[in-house]
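Input.
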Amino acid sequence: MRTEVVINKIDSPFDYGQKVIFMGSCFSEHIGERLVQRKFNIDLNPFGVLYNPVSIASGIQRLLHQNPYEGEDLFSHQGWWHSFDHHSVFSNSDKELCLRNINDRLTLSGQSLIESKYLFVTFGTARVYHQKSNGRVVSNCHQVPDSLFETQLLRVGDIVRMYSLLIQELAVLNKDLKWIFTVSPVRHWKNGPEGNQVSKATLLLAVNELRSKFEQVDYFPAYEIFMDDLRDYRYYADDLLHPGTQGIDYTWRKFKETYLSASSLETLKAIEALIRSKNHRPRNAGSSEHEEFRNKQYQTAASLAQRHPNIDLNEFISFFSPEQA
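Output.
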């Protein structure tokens, strides 16, 4: 027996040619990465993984207004340069390179935000960390001592007001943009089970209110899929807090059924077959059978690229090219 979470397919699913942006934690990272691997036009986490609504909103504001970062926005810790607005994937031992990478991505993703059909936002926690020195909310502490920060649990009204303004502002520049909110099923155990539940409840209530206020806002129940449908630790990673491969696979199937068009699903199958072929490790490398297999994959990739010029399939064409044999 199961309590399956039933999700209705949206009226306007997206296809390979349309831009989509993902921001936030867990769901955004896992599902966004799968779409990237399958050659969809995805802008994934332009600030790296973000967990709280304030940091995500600040990032969207920065993308909208294109305010570049300056050298004084970075700080040095343990030999690396960091930004409190960014995940450590942007950190670098070279200050100028760190700054350039941050601003290059800011410019690129700002354009993506204006051109995207969907913006997926995943909230991980309603708790934020403030720097004691200036009260600023940070996205990532970068292993700076906890004593320099203080925590706060956001209120539902704070989140709703913040995003109401943001949704209205962005609608002026991209009137067709649809917002899809999700809440991460990852348990934030640092605050204990009760603290985690209060945090998740705050996020869910805020999203529910935003959904009732704006017709361009919807919700994908990633949290409910894990809490109510996949109620078994086999769907979690070894730490029993993060989703495991089986759980992510299941959520990915639900996502595809909900948001991808029929034509994109067909194309997706062909690209996934190429991915499997590329990852296959043959026992008979160099044999005529293997060369025939490679040639078939090359022809498939070339034909698919010709039919879908908006999809970058050079990875497969190059890999299976006769010149690489």
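The longest strand covers residues 118-123.
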